[in-house]
Write a structure and sequence with these properties.
Strand content: 15-25%
CATH class of one domain: Alpha Beta
Radius of gyration: 19 Å
Structural class: alpha/beta
Order of helices and strands: EHEEEHHEHEEHEEEHEEHEHH
Helix content: 25-40%
Shape: globular
Number of helices: 9
Distance between the termini: 43 Å
CATH superfamily of one domain: NAD(P)-binding Rossmann-like Domain
Number of strands: 13
CATH architecture of one domain: 3-Layer(aba) Sandwich
CATH topology of one domain: Rossmann fold
Length: about 300
Amino acid sequence: MKTALVTGGAGFVGSHLCDRLLREGLSVIAMDDLSTGSRVNITHLMGRKDFRFVLQDVTNPFEIQADYIFHLACPASPVQYQKNPIKTVVTNVVGTLNGLSLASRIGARFLMASTSEVYGDPDVHPQPETYKGSVNPTGPRACYDEGKRCAETLCFDHYREAGVDIRVARIFNTYGPRMAVNDGRVVSNFIVQALRGEDITVYGDGKQTRSFCYVDDLVEGLCRLMFGDEIGPVNLGNPGEFTMLELAEQVVELTGSSSRLVKRPLPQDDPKQRRPDITKAKERLGYEPRVPLREGLPPTIEYFRRAVANAG
């Protein structure tokens, strides 16, 4: 039986990935320091013979035997990664270096979960993998944006110098069940505010856009990339594009909330447009997301309805 190590395995995306890999017949080791992940996300897996949880910070060297390493460990929302920006940089750089060093020693295939944030506030729309980005290296988001860019560099240098079998995925906005109530990303923010009857905070004029990928579609893309021949980088996301106002209106409608929209100043370096060009994923991976926003929001809302009630 092949074994997959998932760093960040107790997180939102990581826990869904563990579920998928187990269904595919792999043995899974989830590693997480629980700084943003939660044991609740993997409680249903505990006790299985083909699943193991390791409490570990990826910035500390680790020795685990695996055939595949999915490297997802790092806070992914601005609210979370800006709490401790230095730790975010270290997690991206040192954590990736530790994972690549392990992959080199044991001959494992290594997939890095990079991000659409490597494109910064883009001058090209939609963003293809060939676009080099427009990132502010000294701004408040740089700890994550530049950390991921450096992590990609480490991947390709290990590929060229040490022959490490790498895969690089550039992940666009993803949502779904198991997001934390305090996650801080726009989908969870809007849903939680709507369910609590609070004002829904829209930053800027609300016309900035994002593309939202349901978590099952993202996990499908990660598996196709890991188990295929393409190295990457490859954009993974849903090219459906919505303004923040459109998202807020859908959330209010689907939750039946009486919340009102309140505008706030746009944060520094917040991208005005974000939509993936997934031509490469379609052609090289046969990948195309299947869940539109209108279908992915209801199960996400129901998850948050329970989570908010339990928190209350």
